[in-house]
Amino acid sequence: MKKDRHKMILKIIENNVISTQEDLLQMLKDSGFDSTQATVSRDIKELRLVKTMDENGNYCYKVNPAGSDELLSKYNSIFAHSVISVDYAGNMVVVRCFTGMANAACAAFDNMKWEGLVGTLAGDDTIFALCRNEEYALQIKNSIQSVLLK
C-alpha cells in the first residue's frame, strides 16, 4: 500500500502543481488513497520531496535532485570507508567507526532509506540507531555488514 501511495504521490507532483500538503492529500483521496495529513507529511520526507519555485513563480513540491542514485552511491562510499564494525542488541544497532568519522558516516546513513529506522545518534566513533523492533535491527545490521564486505 505504501509503495503504491508513493508511486501515486510522485505521479501527482509530476503532473500537477502541488503547493500544500492539503492539496496533495486531496489529490490522493481523489485517486482512491485514504490517508492522513501525518502520513502525507512522512511520505514527503521519505520521498525527499522539496518545495521549489516553478517557471511561473509558484512554490510546489518536486523530487529533490539530491536524492539521486549518484548521491546515494557517494553516501554508500563515505559510509563504507568510515565503518569498522556493526552489531545489534534488541532494537538498537551499534556502528563502530574510525575516530572522528561517526558524524559523517551517520549523515550518510541517515540519507539511506532504512525501513524500520526510528532515528540515529552519532558520537566521535560510534553511531546508535534505534529501530522499530529487533527484526529491523537485524536487517539493518546485515545490510551494513554486506556493505562492509564489498
Word description of this protein:
This protein is of the alpha+beta class and 150 residues long. It folds into two domains: 2-65, Winged helix-like DNA-binding domain superfamily/Winged helix DNA-binding domain (Arc Repressor Mutant, subunit A, Orthogonal Bundle), CATH 1.10.10; 69-148, Gyrase A, domain 2 (2-Layer Sandwich). The chain has helices spanning 2-15, 21-30, 37-46, 69-82, 102-110, 134-148, and strands spanning 49-53, 59-63, 83-89, 92-97, 117-122, 126-131. Helix 4 (69-82) packs antiparallel against helix 5 (102-110). The radius of gyration is 18 Å and the shape is elongated. The mean pLDDT is 88.
Number of domains: 2
* Distance N to C terminus: 33 Å
- Poorly predicted spans: none
Envelope shape: elongated
CATH top-level class of the largest domain: Alpha Beta
Structural class: alpha+beta
Query: What is the ordering of alpha helices and beta strands?
Result: HHHEEHEEHEEH
Query: In CATH terms, what is the architecture of the largest domain?
Result: 2-Layer Sandwich
